[in-house]
Structure formats: structure tokens, C-alpha cells
Amino acid sequence: MATYDDPRILRAVAHPTRNRILSELFAAGSLRAADIAKVLDIPANQASFHLRQLAKYGLVEEAPDEARDKRDRVWRLADADGISFRTRDLREQPGGEAAYAVFQRNAVAWGHHLVDRALAAGPEDSSVHKSVSENALRLTKEEAEQVMNEMGAVIERWRAHTQGTADDDRITYSVYQLIQPYPDREDA
After folding, report:
1. CB of 6 within 8 A of CB of 89?
2. Are 129 and 39 spatial neighbours (Cβ–Cβ below 8 Å)?
3. Which terminal CB of the chain, N or C, has fewer other CB atoms within 10 Å?
4. Which domain holds residue 108?
5. Which CATH number belongs to the domain containing residue 91 in this structure?
6. Which band of pLDDT confidence, cut at 50, 70 and 90, is reported for residue 121?
7. Is the pLDDT of residue 47 over 90?
8. Count of domains in the chain?
9. What is the pTM of this model?
């Protein structure tokens, strides 16, 4: 997994459309701008613009070996395992606090949106599965890390199983993980 500490890259990733493009590429493996445009319901030129911006920061790259011809542009993550940020190092750089604040604000809004959509009352759609669950475990810091790693392994196993499949019945699901002490226990 590629790790970054550049505030400019965090700002690029904080953009909701770019973040979603990264998620789609992470799930699918590789996609054309037209495929991304269709999934995100945006114009193809807008998808291309955002892909070029992500490429400018080294987050995505062209996959010429997957193209049908020289004009066909297929994109993939520069690091197939995804990206992460060294938050502490990033925040200490010029512009880091501001970039992190934008990223945090967007991440919080996205988390709220996901939970709201999953819990929204309405007619049941049998074509999708939604679930929100909250569990409580008594863990040491090391055990919490082990649980996180095990959950990550399950996600990675499923990603490897479904990545690159051109099945029209498959859609991208957001699997939102949150492992933390209860907020009133963080300082305990």
C-alpha cells in the first residue's frame, strides 16, 4: 500500500468525485473513463479530468496492456493495494492542517451519508443488501489491531475474488469499517 504525507495529495483525494473514482478502481481493478462516468453518473469528460488530476499526483496510471487499441485509455490504481496517509507527518507540513481539515470534513459527511442511506426507511429493494451493525468488544490495543487486520483480510479476499469480473449484476458496495474505543473511553 502506498503511503503519502503530501498535503496536496490529500487535498486531491478529499474531493468527493476523486475519492469515489479511487474506490471504484480499488474494487474493479481497472476501468475506462466512460465506465467511471457511467457508474458515477457524470459526463465522460469530467471523469477524464478527475483521472488526469489523480494521475498528476501519481495515484492512478494508465494500463496500456488492458487497452483494446492505442486510443483506448484504461486506468488503474498506481498501487493496487490502495493508498494511505501518514497523518501526523502530513499535518506538520505547510498547508497540512488545512488539507487535513478538508479531508476530515468530507470523510465525516461521507460517513453520515452512508449510515443515513443504509438506515433510510423506504421500500425494500431486493436487488441490493444493506446492513449497519454495531458491536462491542473488550480489547487491548494489540487485539484491536488484530481485529482490524483480520477484517482487512476478509475485505481483501473478497476484492481479489471479484476484481476484474465483468458481471452486470455486480455493483460496488461500500464496506465502512470503524474500530475505536467508545468516545467516552478514549482517554481511559
Report:
1. no
2. no
3. C
4. 2-185
5. 1.10.10.10
6. low
7. yes
8. 1
9. 0.86
